[in-house]
Design goal:
alpha/beta; 3-stranded mixed beta sheet; binds 2'deoxy-thymidine-5'-diphospho-alpha-D-glucose
Length: 327
């Protein structure tokens, strides 16, 4: 793969939690302008050393505890990583920007900060925050911190809020790969509540592309919603994935594995973003059609069943059993 920005040195900072996996990075790990650093963003001295050694002059901040169900079982890690971790990164950015005014900081966030959208309505960048899970609240706090560093210190900050991502290498606690994994293993497919909660599905490549646009062209101090408009109920998505698996693998209807289970506490009914700002001001548009991306994503998991197996052993099983035992 030819690197898109050969003049940049990309330093990937990750502490490799349960969801991190160096195998996911194999295809880029030999690139001359790529480097991996195993650092926890809540370890300020280690982070400071890493910034100094690598002469970091910009940050694209995607590090987070990201799974809502886990934030309900144990919120502490979410407060630590998502709020304190963001604070440490901002502090280092602030210090560095004292000598390098061009220091750029892209803070990557979520539509969950806005809470649930009424039927027919979409949130825009001016909508008030109304987070409903410890995860969403931790991301909202981090967004506010990032914004305050622009207002108070003039740090060169941009923020993005995206909808649900799907694509290869997604850890199988998330709905999309969980459905595939359970269907492949003939296990019940848990659908929370009545399954009519709506999510807007964004292909991961389109999201990355949007981050590229905002990082390079977004206006300092501004936030940008990122969505594709592929809004559907969970039950519809699950049935579509089952249908693709039936078509590709045969062997009867996987829909029969669907099991409606007790709803997630504080479960937002509907997420919907208005992303006209990024489209009009930065000329970003998702370039992948949902149906095509859906099918190619299912294909990827079918080709990478061993990857799924390696993710779903050990810690995952303990989590899965705790999560679904009493539902
Ligand atoms: O909207 C962006 C957010 O999308 C990100 O900020 C989060 O980091 C990411 O985890 C994701 O949050 P969700 O809670 O929407 O994703 P999840 O895959 O957990 O669930 C998608 C929907 O499917 C949600 O309405 C809950 C439901 N669900 C989920 C699981 C895991 C089920 O019905 N059954 C399941 O087993």
């Amino acid at each position: 793969m030819a690197p898109k920005y050969p003049d940049y040195l990309f330093v990937n900072i990750d502490c490799l939690t349960y969801a991190g996996n160096l195998f996911n990075l194999e295809s880029i790990s030999d690139l001359p302008n790529y480097k991996f650093e195993k650092v926890d963003i809540t370890d300020f001295p280690a982070l400071e050393k890493c910034f100094a050694e690598n002469q970091i002059d910009s940050v694209i901040h995607l590090a987070a505890e990201s799974h809502v169900d886990r934030s309900i079982i144990g919120p502490a890690k979410f407060i630590r990583t998502n709020i304190a971790g963001t604070f440490y990164l901002l502090e280092l950015a602030r210090k560095t920007s004292e000598r390098d005014k061009s220091f750029r900081f892209l803070h990557v966030s979520t539509d969950e900060v806005y809470g649930s959208a009424e039927s027919g309505l979409q949130f825009n960048e001016e909508s008030p925050f109304n987070p409903n899970s410890p995860y969403a609240a931790s991301k909202a706090a981090a967004d506010h911190l990032a914004r305050s560093y622009y207002q108070t210190y003039g740090l060169n900050i941009v923020i993005t809020n995206c909808t649900n991502n799907f694509g290869p290498y997604q850890f199988p606690e998330k709905l999309f790969p969980l459905v595939i994994n359970n269907a492949l293993n003939n296990k019940a497919i848990p659908v929370y509540g009545d399954g009519k909660h709506e999510r807007d599905w964004l292909y991961v490549d389109d999201h990355c592309n949007a981050l590229d646009f905002v990082f390079h062209s977004g206006k300092a101090g501004e936030s940008y919603n990122v969505s594709s408009g592929s809004l559907m109920t969970n039950i519809e998505l699950v049935k579509r994935i089952c249908g693709i698996l039936d078509k590709k693998l045969g062997g009867g209807k996987r829909e029969k594995l669907i099991q409606f289970v007790t709803d997630r506490p504080g479960h937002d009914r509907r997420y919907a973003l208005d992303s006209s700002k990024i489209k009009n001001e930065l000329e970003w548009d998702p370039s992948n059609k949902f149906e095509t991306a859906l099918e190619s994503t299912v294909d990827w998991y079918l080709k990478n069943e061993n990857w799924l197996k390696s993710c779903t052993s050990g810690e995952y099983m303990k989590y899965y059993e705790t999560m679904y035992a009493n539902r």
